[in-house]
Design a protein that fits this description.
Blueprint lengths: L3 E4 L7 H12 L4 E3 L6 E5 L3 H11 L8 E3 L3 H6 L1 E2 L3 H10 L4 E7 L5 H4 L4 E5 L4 H10 L3 E2 L14 H8 L5 E4 L10 E4 L6 E4 L5 H7 L4 E2 L28 E6 L2 H14 L5 E5 L9 E4 L4 H17 L4 E6 L6 H11 L4 E3 L2
Parallel strand pairs: 1-9, 2-9, 4-7, 6-10, 11-12, 13-16, 13-17, 14-15, 14-16
Antiparallel strand pairs: 2-3, 3-8, 4-8, 5-6, 6-7, 10-11
Helix pairs in contact: 1-6, 10-11
The chain binds threonylcarbamoyladenylate and magnesium ion.
The site of threonylcarbamoyladenylate has 28 residues, from strand 6 and strand 7.
């Protein structure tokens, strides 16, 4: 398959330029689109066959459901049922934005999309290109992150090209993604909201609207083989580059001392260090990330992909826990490290 590349300036969208991609979606094909979180691999959410193509292109297990993307409040209620009052408050507060809500599904959503679950994940992205594509397509768009299953999510069109070239019909390049980690997923099928995956909408923000919001325990631990997580995707290896990642967590000096020891202990290997403290290390490939939570989130996946391109075998990632978006960074880092976390303080 030849993948068509379409470049769009999000600040000045000419709908004509998106028509072809919308036709692709309408006719059951796949188009990768930018969103404010990460790039999505889109197909018609009302078409079971298109959903099947999404799973195939990603190499994704079919028991891992997709998020459907809409471009209006009306659509949220059209594809769901029994929406609790607290969920309506969250929808009003955080949509459009980097936020996904899980609700009971309407019958029109095919089982392939929800992997047989009775619920559906719905997201109303704020990215103008995503909104316009959904509008022109006239259908909700099912879109997981546009990476190969298990790899870090794509935050630029180049990342999508690396993973999806010749596997899908088209890739829309709308520049780099602002948030950089996937949306916050909140389960709203129970008595009170529960975060299944942290993201740009933080626990603190959610609690301002619904004070009884909780965080699912899987957010910071790896699921054991016999456990059935509420968010099916969390049980798979995730966000992992080819390099073996170890998180080194703590204050600046103790982290630096530890990483120096680790570099010395692994001589002969190609080592990468992701530094949030702008530390210098000899004998390692250094990539700097912003020391703010927001900046770290934005830079993380791109940096992990870059280490692979540079042939790194081991990556040590500096990290210091913070609140806010820090929880999302911590969740992605811990998972990409498969739980290899060293606390230095
Ligand atoms: O920011 C995002 O959410 C991006 C962009 C493209 O919108 N999408 C994204 O999709 O991250 P994906 O498929 O990579 O992650 C969706 C997660 C998976 O872990 C999946 O198991 C979970 O959402 N999920 C989907 N439907 C669910 C449901 N009904 N109940 C529980 N978890 C669900
Ligand atoms: Mg994903």
């Amino acid at each position: 398959m030849i993948t068509k590349l379409i470049r769009i300036n999000p600040e000045n969208i000419n709908p004509e330029d998106l028509k072809e991609a919308a036709e692709i979606i309408k006719s059951g094909g796949l188009a990768a689109m930018p969103t404010e979180t990460v790039y999505g691999l889109g197909g018609n959410a009302l078409d079971a066959e298109a959903a099947g193509k999404i799973y195939a292109a990603k190499g994704r297990p079919s028991d891992n459901p997709l998020i459907i993307h809409v471009c209006s409040y009306e659509q949220i209620f059209e594809y769901t049922r029994d929406v609790p009052e607290y969920a309506k408050k969250l929808i009003k507060a955080f949509m459009p934005g980097p936020f996904t809500i899980i609700l009971k599904k309407a019958d029109i959503i095919p089982d392939t999309v929800t992997a047989g679950l009775d619920s559906v994940a719905v997201r109303f992205p704020s990215h103008p290109v995503a909104q316009e594509l959904i509008r022109l397509s006239g259908v909700p768009i099912a879109a997981p992150s546009a990476n190969l299953s298990g790899k870090p999510s794509p935050t630029t069109a180049e990342h999508v090209i690396d993973d999806m070239m010749d596997k899908i019909d088209c890739i829309i390049d709308g520049g780099s993604c602002e948030v950089g980690v996937e949306s916050t997923i909140v389960d709203a099928t129970g008595e009170s909201p529960e975060i299944l995956r942290p993201g740009g909408v933080t626990l603190e923000m959610l609690r301002e609207v619904c004070s009884d919001t909780e965080v699912d325990r899987n957010v910071l631990s790896l699921t054991t083989p016999n456990e059935k997580p509420k968010c099916p995707g969390t049980k798979y290896k995730h966000y992992a580059p080819d390099a073996e990642v170890t998180v080194v967590e703590g204050s600046r000096d103790s982290v630096r001392t530890k990483i120096k020891e680790l570099i010395a202990a692994n001589r002969g290997k190609i080592i990468g260090v992701l530094t949030m403290y702008e530390s210098a290390y000899d004998d390692a490939v250094i990539i700097s990330t912003s020391s703010t939570n927001k900046g770290y989130a934005r830079d993380l996946f791109g940096a992990l992909r870059e280490f692979d391109k540079l042939g790194c075998e081991l990556v040590f990632a500096e990290f210091c826990e913070n609140d806010g978006v820090g929880l999302a960074v911590k969740n992605r880092l811990y998972k990409s490290a498969g739980g290899r976390v060293l606390h230095t303080d």
